[in-house]
Amino acid sequence: MAGCVARRALTVGSRWWSRSLTGTRGPRPLCAAGGAGAFPPVAATTTRRHLSSRNRPEGKVLETVGVFEVPKQNGKYETGQLFLHSVFGYRGVVLFPWQARLYDRDVASAAPEKTENPAGHGSKEVKGKTHTYYQVLIDARDCPHISQRSQTEAVTFLANHDDSRALYAIPGLDYVSHEDILPYTSTDQVPIQHELFERFLQYDQTKAPPFVARETLRAWQEKNHPWLELSDVHRETTENIRVTVIPFYMGMREAQNSHVYWWRYCIRLENLDSDVVQLRERHWRIFSLSGTLETVRGRGVVGREPVLSKEQPAFQYSSHVSLQASSGHMWGTFRFERPDGSHFDVRIPPFSLESNKDEKTPPSGLHW
């Protein structure tokens, strides 16, 4: 929509999103810049921006992709809900919800459902509360612009062959917290470009949202439930740097006459302050039920040393760990550097590695 006047903008990398000022009480168009590098990053707190010939790159226009809806403060989003990710800026669609237990070391829960206190590192007791996450598909057009993530998939599986370390991933499959959802509607019958969109969802104009689950989605969810399930989320803030960890059990493999248990874990780092900081080092402690305690130190994470700023306050990545025992614990610290060269350590909330799944063989591919 050329000439769109923007009131609020959300950005990640070089993708720029805007809300139109036309009609303060009516629907507000959601616009997307047409192409990589279309606009420089604009903070989500921007109050007013006029797109004119002076600040619109040559050959770049805004295209309407939908209309924002009011985010839900209570209740859940339904299958087929279109959304914009409030932190990473991509378009996506909700497949189904997960009810997780959030262990927040910054907030005391008045109504605990479960208590966690992993042994071996002297952590305080933390009480969990229910929190909603969603399994979603990411629009493939937006993946190249998500610069503050090491990858655009949060789901990996163990390959079903002799190599016990082999993994495969499903591109564009993610987990999103309820508060990160910015819902919108679209008149497009295929608004999200992903190879699984039409396989999982079908258009039904009589429904709201107008995308309903196919039987293939329900069957896929049921058959892969043990390897997709999001059950526990761990969060802790140190000096305005919030670390969120989500562990997932991946399954067990036999290697050299012993059992090897695998987990993946997803970590988000968020700078809640306006000061720029850079992650420099990681320090992990990994305890196995077999009695071993391993220490891992290294530069950065997944080969990167991300900078967290007011413009790009978050970074997310996934990694994997294996144990020769059915359970264990992980905890540690990230070392950050300030612009003046000083350093400080940020605690990684301790979390359990559990293999309490009934099935012992992970899937070897997408099950329909």
Structure description:
Strand 24 (327-337) and strand 25 form a beta hairpin. It contains three helices and 25 strands. The protein has helices spanning 197-200, 215-223, 225-228, and strands spanning 5-12, 15-20, 29-33, 49-50, 62-68, 82-85, 91-104, 115-116, 126-127, 129-138, 156-158, 167-169, 173-177, 181-185, 201-203, 211-213, 232-238, 241-255, 258-271, 277-288, 293-299, 307-308, 314-323, 327-337, 343-354. It has a single domain, classed as ApaG domain (Immunoglobulin-like). 5% of the residues lie in helices and 47% in strands. The strands form five sheets. Strands 1, 2, 3, 4, 5, 6, 7, 10, 13, 14, 17, 18, 19 and 23 form a 14-stranded mixed beta sheet that branches. It is mostly beta strands and 368 residues long.
Classified in CATH, the superfamily is ApaG domain
Mean pLDDT: 79
* Regions with little confidence, pLDDT below 50 for 5+ residues: 1-26, 34-57, 109-114, 363-368
Write down the overall geometry.
Answer: globular
Radius of gyration: 21 Å
Total DSSP E strands: 25
Q: How many structural units, i.e. domains?
A: 1
How much strand?
over 45%
CATH topology heading: Immunoglobulin-like
CATH architecture: Sandwich
The major β-sheet equals:
14 strands, mixed
Coarse structural class: mainly beta
Q: Tell me the helix content.
A: under 10%
**Total DSSP helices:** 3
InterPro entries: ApaG_domain, ApaG_sf, Hemimethylated_DNA-bd_dom, Hemimethylated_DNA-bd_sf
GO molecular function, one term: DNA binding
Main location: mitochondrion
Subcellular location: Mitochondrion matrix; Nucleus
